[in-house]
Structure formats: structure tokens, C-alpha cells
Amino acid sequence: MKCVIIGAGIAGVTAAETIKKINQDIDVVLIGKEQYLPYNRYRLTDYLCNVIDDTQLYFTSFDFFKKNNIKYRNGEYIKSINPAEKTIKYYHNEVMGYDKLLIATGGSQHLGPILKPFSQYIQSYYTLQDILLLKKFLPDIKHCVVYGENLSNLDLLAGLCNLDKKITYIIKGEKARFPLLKEEFEQDVHYFLKNKGIQCITNDKLVNIKKEKKKFTVETLNQKIIKTDIVFAWDDSKPNISLLEGTAIHKKTGILVNQYMETSEQDIFAAGDCAEIYHPILKNYWINFGWPNAREQGEIAGKNIAGEKALYQIHETLTFHLEGKPIKARWWE
Amino acid sequence: MNNQTPGVKIEKSTDILDRKWIDINIPCRAACPIMTDVPGYIKAISEGDYETAYMINRQDNVLPSILGRICSRPCEAACRHGWDGLGDPLAICFLKRSAADFGLREFAPVIKPNHKKVCIIGAGPAGLTSANDLALKGYDVTILEQFEEAGGMLRFGIPRFRLPRDIVENDIKSILDLGVKIKTNTRIESAAFIKELQKQNDAVILAGGCMLPKKLDIPGLDSKGVTWGLDFMMDANRDRLLSPMQKVVVVGGGFTSVDCTRMAHRLGAKDITLTFLFTRDDMTVGEHELDDMEAEGIEFVFLVSPAGIESENGRVTGVKFVRNFIQKDKSIKTIPGSEFVIEADTVVFAIGQEEEKFLPGEKLTAKDNFFITGDFRTGASTVIQAAADGRKIARQVHQKLSNIKEYQDVITITPVKETGRVRDYDFIPLQPMDKIPLTERSQKEKEVDTGFPREKSVSEAKRCYLCHFNFQIDIDRCIYCLACIDVMPVDCIKMAKDIHITDDGNMYPVPAENWEQVQAIVIDNNKCIRCGNCVRACPVDCISISQYTLDIIEKI
Amino acid sequence: MNYKELTVRFCGIAGDGIVSSSRIISGACADAGLHVMVNDIYSAEIRGLGKSTSTIRFSGSKVYSMGDGINALVGLAQQESIDEIEDIREGGSVIYDSSSPADIPETESLASHIPPEVNGYGIPLKTLANQASGSNRGRNIVSMGALCHLYGLPKTIFINQIEKIFKRKGDKVVESNLTAFELGYEYCQNQYPLNNLFVMDKKAKPLQIISGNEAVAHGAMDCGLKFFAGYPITPATKIMEITAKELPKLNGWTIQVEDEIAAIGAVLGASFTGTRAMTATAGPGLSLMSELINLSVMAEISAVIVNVQRGGPATGLPTKVEQGDLNISLYGGAGDSPRVVMAPTCSKDCYTSIQAAFDLAEKYQTPVIFLSDLFLGQRLETDDIKRNINYKKSTRIKPTRQQLKNYQRYALTEDGVSPLIVPGEDGAFYSITGLAHNTAGNPNFESEVHLTMTQKRFRKFKSMVKDLPPVEIIGDADADIGIACWGSTYGAIFEGMQIARHNGVKTKMIKSIMIYPQDEESFKTFFASCKKIIVFEMNFQGQYAALLKSTYNIKPVEVHIPSVDPVSPAKIAAKIMEVNHELTQ
């Protein structure tokens, strides 16, 4: 049996490992979009701030793949899936067959219709490549504009503060609405932002970015003009599910799965940040967020792929560290 | 074609295979319900000839300025440029708008009156198209319209920020200029009235549209603040909505619901939510409109069904929803116990429209010289579909009232020397539409899309693959020198061991695996970018280009 | 990562521009003062879809061989490139086309074979090439742009080289190639902003780049070659190509004849009239020439026969290298048929020793077989060849007036060389024959006369020793392991020795361009100083080892190097270590 796993994040790697633990005879192909070994995404800011070095960043090694006989294909991505023929198609038009497919493509920062035209001026902050690039030119940067109310923004703000950068933070409402449990974030985060001397522009939106020589000019809805060295901006984080286009696999924001991590299509599973599941307590569809959950989902998916029946128990165990303090995060939408 | 070789014979074909060739190879034209000659007018635009482009549209789809803004664009979904690996589909709709923006001129063909009278009930897109077609054939056409102005859904259903009123008026005027008379504020009240019309006219066409909102049955619908999509739009368009709104919930996932949310944004609402039974993928609305919605800050909630209206003192305070899940067969089912409430002071249900029962208890059917067209006949659809149906029924009327046996599709095959397209055009990116800034989006009169400037429209038009040109290699003359394969820009010329012609007339070359198997060299029109490199390279001049155009003629 | 040396391989099918891309890169590197070696491997089919590769190794310091493994592979043809992946070193990279127009099954996809420790870079080569030039040509230039970025190579040297190479094809071609290069560079820059860095000396002086065949042709022309006759054969054709172009400018001739027999015949004819003449061929051609080489020996007419060896026997492996023609060169004659056999080791050798070959041939009135090989003949390398055009007009020994009076064409002399006139020279009669003859050149079948004349012919080879190019001893003089090799394998073995030395095993090598005759004293001394002798050569029989064994009475370790690919220094080193291990046990 050949199992193909799209996405070499923690969910994908855990699933691969789980499958191999249960049955060595299953061929496992793990496809990662990035050129590097799978790494700890949540530690990227630490890496940027030189708290950890690159050896602490990776959680696998080439030996791990060799030892487990997992075929790791890095730097490649899948553009489409054909569930009827049980094949996937790579960006370079290679067609690969599968018996079981796990989609663990995770999420990424998403630019809405207003920001999209300026994507070339916006520095993304999500992959190791972004960080490595930032490491190169951050020393020359004095002033940053940050826009967006995601956990990754908070992470970025913390990182930039530690690097003593001057920050202007544009917030849509009166206060930043991170997807955190309300009572906890209100005090901690606001205190944090203020304490760190971040200049906050409230009740405003970023609507225009211009580049002049090496500087950027940012314009807000309320006609505020800010000159800056770098712009970090995104609207929200969204699951990477463009590869599902044209398939009948049920999806909402993410890929809809049941508690066995099965999608609506036979033999196709989804796990991690790209999977969306109905949460009876929240009475809502819910995209799991964070490292421990992705690992757990990966494991459950791996077990189900390998033939064991494992049920995913929905719970909330999400934490986010702000200055060493854990903050409970809830959902991600 | 200006580069047509003199003396070369233009072929007129009625061969079913040539007809199928058009369906298969000109996907945009085949996808258009009214079969607009898309490559024809786009080629004209690429040459800067907006007037020709406008006239092609005026003849084919009657309402170019209107459709150039609000068409549902089935053509773009089919466009070859959007196929896997070929980039983004052409902005066909915006180009149509450019043709009208820069090429609009008087349409005054010579009409020979035939002194037959036709009455059309309803001045919406279907009625107007029928009127136009019949007027061109010399009929004396009168339209009856229940409202004070012509246009139907175009005027009252579609908001002005998408379709300015003067644009509607221009297109309607162009039809009325053909001699069509219109009686406004006239409504059908009785069967006798229709009988009377049938007597006075040679034919009567009912194009009543679908002006009645579909209703659903949940508790609390009578609360103040609950309204129906079309009513909301009509009131807003007629400036009759006075009560201020803050939190608006729109239920439904069609064009009208999207228009309602965006109209609410212009009416000053702060929190606007669109809710839909299914998911975003299931919405029929084009991606660009959803993007505009998102930009205007409208939120989506998918997979929810309305379960009831929450109200206080008879005034709505919120909508109770229940979550849905998708079953294997793609149908939805509610999840028990998943009820939740979205706060609202205005709730708009835009879950579809249906035809009005003009005559209670009596079903209107087409009989004798009474015809039905448009949404009234087919159920709620799009403007382009209604117009296409208008044309279809107009043809039926004409056939019945004159001595035409049938209509026949004739394909004109014109040999040409060059297509005018070069390889560089493939690298022009999709031209984005300029829009007014967000700060100006609170004015409900102000059109959001500002239209392509001339240069942009020419650039965009150059991207078109001009699928109406057919490249063929004459195998009898081919010397298999492979000169064409050496210069081919993409993988478009193949060495084939056999050619399969399917029943529907499409040719599939079976690729040869080695030189011994090669029986023919074939141009794959699906891959062809119409650059003409091969024609120029061929030493024995065995590659021909011909332009395929479709006309429908009346057979007497 | 920083690199001081890089090996890049282009792999594709005919028409992909494999060779031209390696020419651009190598030219660019040589102009920037880098040492370069290029090796092309292509299929034997004359036209068609055979695979071809070109490998470029460049470094700040002298490059002796193609080294081991490659750093980067540019796969212009997917399926064909799959086999090359195993050569990639860890951390290396593969550039493949991500804009393939048709679906590729997993088994045929290059990307699916890239191991995780090698970086795959999918670049839409086809699309970008199209964008630049309107056709699929130029994918190689796009990938070059990508390479340039990925390894931090200076852009300007490539741009200059592209301008230089395409200049004669017109501005439009230059422009589209430059655009292709820029597009590849930009794409990579946007997609893969982090790169490796090739560290280079910015002040290095430009080097010249030359292939063995070019060196042979130019060396010969620089020392007075006036006549070339030949029949095209891979891998020797290039020599004729050059002489055909250049000789007429020097008032010389190149003729293409109907076969190799005619070629050597024409050469002997030309030489007979006093002209410096040469032919070039490969193994199958040399076989055909055997008979007339015998005539050259018997009639004592000088001739230079360049044999660019390829795999044999018979038509064999037309596009693969092998050192299998030593025996036919040494012994391929009927009767006692001595001839000079020389084997250059690098392009520089090719240039200098072809001149030495002419001098020996002319002076000693003998055929000289010049054993180049496919790898040496076709590889490009940078070398500081000092052009020598001050050759002696003629090294032929002319008769004195006294001798001319009663001219004996085959007069017996102390060194065996009979004074030579040009036929038709006033007052003397030049008699020549392939039959056994007396000193006057008249047929004579008496046993005594035959013995005397045979002795005379062999005597020349004894007296020749003083004029031979010197033997070089390379390596550590105090080493116990002595190495002998010949021809183009020298470079790889030299690098193998360095690797072994790095691992603590000292070796020395005797490098001699002369195969026969040899400076026997130097060889004897060298072998006497070694505890163990290894003979490396690229043939199955151990042809050189057999020669050495019979001449010097030694018992060497004979190593047969497989003949398909260029020699791997690492494998040479491994063999040396193995021998050393046995020795120390």
C-alpha cells in the first residue's frame, strides 16, 4: 500500500511516523513544500531573535527518514488531486498514484482583496525562508508597520520588540482582537503592547502601500500616511486548500473531516491546521490551531490510515506563549 | 478579415462536424447562452477597433453596456487561457464593457416593415431582447411594462453601484430607437386582457420575469426589520428605505443576496453578515464580486440554515441559525443542538425568486400566438440566460408568422494569412480592473468598477488565444521536415501515429512513440496559441489558417 | 555554504543546447581566471534523441581531473537525467523544468528521484525560455541564470560571455539569450533568496581554454604542419575540422579522402616530398592504416598519426573512452616493425608533445603514433600553453655533398638515420620500396642484408633516447608506492595521489609521455626505489603493464579502470590505500 502525505509539518511527519510504527510495509511518501527539513514553526521567532540556533529548529533529520524508510520529497508542491483516479499532480506536472492520501498542508497567512495587489511589498512572516531572509536584512531596518490580528502577528510583535525595532501597529477595531480567550488577552496583551512602546493606530485599516526607493509609504483608510522600512501585513490565516479546487471534497474554510480525520472522499484524510471539524461545545466548525493538536491529529490520521480505528477527541489545549506566559487560544478563523 | 488573400474561396459549411468544431474549439462562444462571437470582438479591440467590437456585441447580445458590467460570465469560466497551466482566463466581460465604453454608436440598420404586430409583456432583459430581434425583422413591437420605467430587474434588482442607470437607459434607448414602442405602468390584471392582446396582435410574448421573492416558513417572519431580498433592493434603489440599520444579516447565496449586503454597506450598516446553507464554492456569484464584498468588510457564515427570528416588541433583534453538515450525496442536513443566534436589526431573506401568478388560479401556457419567455418560462436565471431565451422565443415567433421552414447554422470558413497574434502576448498578465477607493464606497450611486482605459483593454484583448482560427497541416503536402516543430512555442504540434475523430467532431492525435510510427504531423488546436510561427517556418506552405464564424440563417 | 570549487552537469537530449551551455560557463569561468575542465558525454547516434551530458568543473586552483561527484545537475531532459542523480554530492542541487507541458509519470520524473539531502529546484525553464525567445530554445540559458544565482556566481562574467558567444548570430539572438539568463536569475532570486556562495579571486587573470584535439591541431600547425589528410571519425574529427579551416591560411592543405587507408597513403606521399604531414583517426581507422604504417617503417618515411582512442574492439564504443589501442600502436605491424608511440596527459602536453612528435618523426624518419583519447581530446581545460612557433624548419638530416655524390637512400650510419633528400633533388636518385632493400633502396632479399637493415631501423630507436621529452617523477621521493600510468588518466591519478596523501599515504609517480622508446634508465631507477608498484590504465588487458613487466622485469599491481566514465580520483585513492594496507601488513 502506498500512502502519500501532503505537507511536512508536524501533522504530516507524525502521521508518517505513526504509519511506519504500525506497519513497516506501507510505502510512505511525505511531500513538503519547503526546501528544508521539517522544523518547529512556533520557534521561528526564537530563531529570529537568536534565542535558539538552527539545530534546535529542526525536529527531524535525514537519518530519521532513512531509518524509517520514509520517502521525503522536499521543495515540491501539489497542485491538484484526482480522487477518481487516485492520483495527485505536482506543480511540475508529475502524476503520482496513491492508495491513501493525507492532506496536512497546514495554513498560511492570507491577503484579502485589499492587500492582495500589494503583495510584492509585503513581507510575509511564516516560513523558515522568510525568517532567513529577515535575518539578512533586519539589521538595516529601524521602523516596521504591522497589520493583522492573528497569533502570528502577536508572535511577530514580540520578536520585533525583542530586537528593539520601532513598531507601528494598525488595528481594525478599538483593541486588537486576537483569537484568544477574551478575559485573558484583554489585560495581558494590551499591557504588553503598551509596555513595549508599540505605537497603535486604532479603528483603521491599511489600504495602500507604495514603494519609493527602499522605503515604503503606507496609507490607512483614515488617510494616515506612515513611512516605514518594512511592512508586515495579512488579513488572516487560512488553510492551504487550493489543491482541492475542482474536487468534490467537502470544504468550508478548511477541509471538512469527521472524527476519524476522514474527508468526504474515500481514502483521503486531512489533519492539522488545514482540517475543519464540527465542535459540539462551540457549536461551530472549528479549525484546530497549534502544535500539540496538529501532532495529535496527525497521529490519529496515521492510525486510521494504517488500519487501526482511532477517534479524535475534541478538546481545547491550545496555548500560546507571550513573554513566557501561556495564554489560551481558542480557535482560528 | 483585412488580411484575407484575394481570390481565395470562402467556404460556407453546414457540416455538423464544422458546427461541432466551434463548440469544442471556441469554448467561450459555446459557453455563452446567446453565442456571442467573443474572439471576433476581442480581436477587434486588440486592433483598437472598438466600434466593430461594439457592433458585434450589439448584434449578438443586444445589451453590451449592461452585460459588460453584470454578466455572470460563463465564458470566462470556459476560457482556454484559464486552463491548467495557461494562467488566468481573459477578462472577457470587462472587454465587452470597453467595447461599449469606447465604441458605442448609433445602431440604425435598414428595417423593412412587415406590418405585423407583436406585443411583449415585460421590459426586462428577455422582453427587450425579443423586442429588439423582432423589430429588426420589421415587426411593429409594443412592450407593456408594469413599472414606471423599462428595464425590469436591470433597473430595480441590480444596484446602481454595479450598473449605473444611465447605462441601462442607453442600452434600452438603442432598442427603442428601432421603433419599439413602450407603455409603462401597464399591468396584466385578467385573462381577458391577454385575450384582447392576442386579438389585437399577431403574437403576444409574456416576459414577466421572476419578480416574486421565494418565501420560507420559520417563526417570527412578521417582525419589523425582516424583509425580502428583491423588496429590499427595489426599495433601496427607489430610495424608499428610511430606517437606519446597524447590524444586517442577509440569508442566501445568490446574486441578490450579495447585492443586498453591499447595498447595506452603502446604507451605513456596520456589521453585515451573509449566511448561506452551503459553502463558498457553491455560490453562483463570481469570485471578483465576493472579493469586492470581502473588501467592503462583509462577513460570511457558511453551512447554516435559518431556524427562526428573535424579536423584542415586534422588532427583530437577531436570527437563530442552526449549523448544517454536508452529507455524502452533497445534500445538507442540520446538526441537532447546534443552534446559535446572530444579532441583527435588519434581516434580508434573498433565497431566490419565482414567477408572479398574474392570474390567480390559472396557469399561463404558451398556445397559438401566445408565447412565454425569459425567467417566467425557465425560472430565475441570469441576465444573459434571459436574453438568450428572449432571442429563442423571438425566433419561434418569427418562424410562426413568416414562411420560414427552419433556422440553419452556417459556418463561414475564411482562409487568412495571419492571425496578428505573436508569442509575446502570452506573457501579458491579466489586467486588473481599477476600482474606486474604499473611502468612496458609501455612496450607493457610485459605480465601483471604473472600467479599463484604452491601453489596458488593448493589452487584455491581446491575451486572447483567438480560438476561432483553425490551424491545419495538409498531410498530403507535408514533407515531414519538422521545421514547424522546431519553432513551436508550446507543445502544440505533434507527431501522430493515428488521428481519432470522435463522434462530436473533435480530433485527437494519437502520439507516435518513434519515427517509424509517424503517420501525420498534427496541430493540437487545444494547445495552439495562434502565433503563426509554424506557418512562417513551413517550407512547402502546407499549413493553413482559417477563421470560423457562425451565422444562423433562415431557410425558406 | 561557501564553495571554492564546483562541478556542474548539464544533462539533456540532442538539441537541448547541452554543449553550448557548458561552453558558455567554461568560457565565462576561464575569462574570470578560474581553472576549468569540461567533459562531454553524448550518445553514439548521429542524430536523434540520445542522451548527452556536459560536466564542468571549475576552481580557483588547477583542475587535473573531473573529480568525484557533482554539485549541481541541470536536468534539461527529465527521464535522461535520473541516472545522473547518484553522482550528486550531499547538499548539492538539481535544477529541473517545472513547466513540462505533458503529465509525467512518477517513474519518469526527475524530481521524484531527488533524495532529500539534495535540493531540488523546480524552475519553469520552458516558460521562461519562451518568454525570452518565443521558443523552447534557451532553456539552458535560463537554467544558467538560475545556477548563477544559486551559487552566488558573478553575473557579469556570464553576461559578457553570452554576448561574446552569440555576437556573430546578431543582436537579436544576444538580446533574447540575455533576457533568458536574466529571467532565470530573477526567478531564482524571488523563489530561493538564500544561496550558496562561490568564493573566487577577483583579480585572477583570464586563462585560455582548449581541448586536447584543439591543442593537437594548433600544436601541429605551429610546428610546420602543411598537409593533413583524413577521414572523419569520432572522436578525432575535430582535428580535421580545425586544420581544414586553418591550414589553407598557412598555404597548407587539408584533404578528406575516401577512407583511412587513403589518408595514411596521402600523408606518406606528402611526407615523401618533404612536407610535414599528419593524419588523425581513432582505433578502427588505425586498424585500417596498419599496412601503410608498415610501409612507413620499412621505407623510413616520417608520418605523424594521431589516434584519439575510443572504446573497442571494432566499431566498439564510439563515444566512450578507453586506453585500448596501446598494443596495436606498439605491435600492430607485420614483421619487426618498430614505431614511436607517445601519449600526452593533458592539453598542454598535446600541444608540446605533438611538436616533439614531429621533430622525432622527421629526424628519425619513422612513423609516430600519438595516442590521445576521447576524454583528453574532447575535454576542455584551462592551461597556460605558451605558443611555440619558432620550430626548426626541418629536423631532417641532409646528406653532405660527399654523401650526395653517390647517394644511398638507406645508407648505414652510427645512429641508424640515413641522410635524406627530397625526391627529384638534383644529382641524386631517391629509390624507395616496401620490399626488403639494400642501402641504395633496391629490393634485396638476402638474409644478411635484411638483418643489417632491420638492425639499422632499430638502432634509430636507441639513438633517439637523447632527444626524448624528459621523464618526470611526481610526488614524495621517499614514498614506497610507485605509480605508473599513461595518457589522460594521469590527472585523476594525480588527484587520487593527493587524496591518499591527505589520508597519510605517500606515493610517487613516473610520468612519461613516451611509451616507446622510453628512457629506460630513469624507469629502472624509479622502479628500484619502490616497494610496490601500481600500474593504472583504462583497459582490460593491462597493455602498459605488460610492456613495463617485459621491459623492466617488475611485478606491479595492475589496476583496470572501468572505461565508461572519466576516472574517479576517490577510487584511485581507495586503491592506493588498499595497496598500502597490504604493504604495511
Question: What can you see in these coordinates?
Answer:
The complex is a heterotrimer of chains A (333), B (556) and C (585). Chain A is α/β, with parallel strands linked by helices. Helices cover 24% and strands 29% of the residues of chain A. Chain A is built from 8 helices and 22 strands. In chain A, the strands form 7 sheets. Chain A has a 5-stranded parallel beta sheet. The longest helix of chain A is centred in the last third of the chain and has 15 residues, at 291-305. Chain A starts with a strand and ends in a 5-residue tail after the last strand. Chain B has 556 residues and is α/β, with parallel strands linked by helices. Chain B has 4 domains: 11-107 and 410-462, Fumarate Reductase Iron-sulfur Protein, Chain B, domain 2; 119-154 and 190-210 and 355-401, 3-Layer(aba) Sandwich (Rossmann fold); 213-351, 3-Layer(bba) Sandwich (FAD/NAD(P)-binding domain); 469-555, Alpha-Beta Plaits, CATH 3.30.70. In chain B, helix 8 (125-136) runs parallel beside helix 16. The model of chain B has no long low-confidence stretch (mean pLDDT 89). Chain C is α/β, with parallel strands linked by helices. Chain C has 4 domains: 2-198, Pyruvate-ferredoxin oxidoreductase, PFOR, domain III (Pyruvate-ferredoxin Oxidoreductase, domain 3), CATH 3.40.920.10; 210-382, Rossmann fold (3-Layer(aba) Sandwich); 401-466, no CATH class; 472-584, Rossmann fold (3-Layer(aba) Sandwich). Chain C has an 8-stranded mixed beta sheet. The mean pLDDT of chain C is 91. At the A-B interface, loops of A face helix 14 and strand 12 of B. Strand 6 (94-97) of chain A pairs parallel with strand 7 of chain C.
